[in-house]
Amino acid sequence: MRQLSIAGAWVHEPKVFPDSRGSFHEWFKASELDEAAGHALRLAQANCSVSSRGTLRGVHFADVPPSQAKYVKCVRGAVLDVIVDIRVGSPTYKQWEAVRLDDADHHAVYLSEGLGHAFMALTDDATVVYLCSEGYAPGREHGIDPLDPELGIEWPQGITPLLSEKDAAAPSLAEAEAQGLLPSYEDCQAYYAELRARGGAGPPTPTPPGCGQVTRGVVG
């Protein structure tokens, strides 16, 4: 589990064992995630999505508490997975980080409660599976326009984004903040402390690099 520049987000980079029959790897290991996040992932729901090339899902998030932590892996094809810090008051608020997830390196991403999540399918039939800490609850689920210029997410060029009607109509980050939809960093920290109290250390409070700026771009 490698910590990303946004506190509360990690990438899992497993060792893959290939042979003449195929390959084997451990795509999820509770002990490693527990050590990184400081608490166990409560598995409440597992999802699977299949997307054609260019499909853009997100930016999605849920009210805190309890929000929804996610452990995300691409089991077929490839996607560009993006984590967005939408926690108002966070040292890395409005920053994003991208990780390529595919069926070759078998990386996975874990994002804590309160963070925004999106991905774009880089191949046809890109199949993504998610382990979620909470079940889907429409009344507390929200979205932000993934093409919002203020966020400035650098989606791959040469691929036309294909959004659902709901995602295409999602508010900008500024509009979501003005509407009071975004989680506060303070509330997230309080919830992380509650999770730590149940068992472990939880996502650490970050020391922002440089003048509070975080490098944005593709990891891995």
SSE blueprint:
Elements: E1 2-3, E2 9-12, E3 17-19, E4 22-24, H1 30-37, E5 45-51, E6 56-62, E7 70-76, E8 78-84, E9 96-102, E10 108-111, E11 116-121, E12 126-132, E13 141-143, H2 165-168, H3 173-178, H4 185-199, E14 218-219
Parallel strand pairs: 9-14
Antiparallel strand pairs: 1-2, 2-10, 3-4, 5-12, 6-11, 6-13, 7-10, 7-12, 8-9, 8-11
How much of the sequence lies in strands comes to: 25-35%
What is the element string, with H for helices and E for strands? EEEEHEEEEEEEEEHHHE
Structural class: alpha+beta
Work out the radius of gyration.
Answer: 17 Å
Low-confidence stretches: 200-215
The largest pleated sheet is described as: 6 strands, antiparallel
SS element count, helices: 4
Overall morphology: globular
> Strand arrangement, largest sheet?
1-2-10-7-12-5
Cα separation of the termini: 13 Å
The portion of residues assigned to helices is 10-25%
Count of DSSP strands: 14
- Whole-number mean pLDDT: 91
